[in-house]
UniProtKB/TrEMBL annotation:
Protein name: ATP-binding cassette domain-containing protein
Pfam families reported for this sequence: ABC_tran
The species this protein was found in: Psychrosphaera ytuae
Occurrences of domain ABC transporter (ranges): 2-232
Keyword Nucleotide-binding (UniProt): yes
Molecular functions (GO terms): ATP binding; ATP hydrolysis activity
SUPFAM superfamilies the record matches: P-loop containing nucleoside triphosphate hydrolases
Keyword Transport in record: yes
Keywords of the record: ATP-binding, Nodulation, Nucleotide-binding, Transport
Listed PROSITE patterns: ABC_TRANSPORTER_1, ABC_TRANSPORTER_2
Family per record: Belongs to the ABC transporter superfamily.
Amino acid sequence: MLEVKNLVKSFGEFQALKDLSFSAEDGQITGLLGPNGAGKTTALRVLYGLLKADQGVGIINGIDSAKEPMKARSHIGIFPDKFGLYERLTAREQISYFAGLHGFKGADRDAAVNKVITRLNIEDIADRRCEGFSQGQRMKVVLAQSLVHEPKNLILDEPTRGLDVMSTRILRDILAQLKEQGTCILFSSHVMQEVAALCDKVIVISDGKIAGEGTPEELCERTGESSLEEAFVKLIGTDEGIAA
Ligand SMILES: Nc1ncnc2c1ncn2[C@@H]1O[C@H](COP(=O)(O)OP(=O)(O)OP(=O)(O)O)[C@@H](O)[C@H]1O
């Protein structure tokens, strides 16, 4: 389970998060939807302990990510917004490097790497250098490295950015499988259809605050709108920065 409580964060004079609280449950896909600059990435970075909030806490399976960052990180996989790969490493070496960062050694490390390679069905590219990989192949390697330690929580920042339709579908299928296995999945997006198609719960964030929260159906009901698009526009007050 992932929680942020009463997050406040300023960059200089600019307040990016204004008392932001939300949670994401196990076995569910929770979408953080908001226009460009709403504060999604900032909130996720605080949650996984990469950024210090001025006030409030990020909690991963009951662990305060600012107080015990290493312990908290062992419970999460992070699929970052920009994925760089070590071009000279093979996919297997890349994934193994991340397994090492999570404390896997020797035969356990090899077993963990083999398991995630099989799970994501990337045997065909496992022993090729990452140099020259397509966006879809890169996405799978990054996903493998974020799942190699079998975390109970997965955080994805704009996961489908730059992916083609096929790669997006593959990612969606993998997320659906992880959800069935009880993983808590939280992802940020400003693409409304993606959030609507995938999420059990949607957290609408605008200007560093929660603008609405619930299932897609609940959000429609609450705003008195028949389409999600209209519901989101009503909650946020504008359609600027949201992609259909
Ligand atoms: N390191 C930083 N220094 C200054 N301002 C920042 C910094 N990081 C974020 N901000 C500002 O905080 C606000 C929230 O940014 P954030 O990246 O969290 O938004 P977002 O919702 O993830 O947007 P997008 O969908 O465009 O990625 C923006 O106005 C941004 O310019």
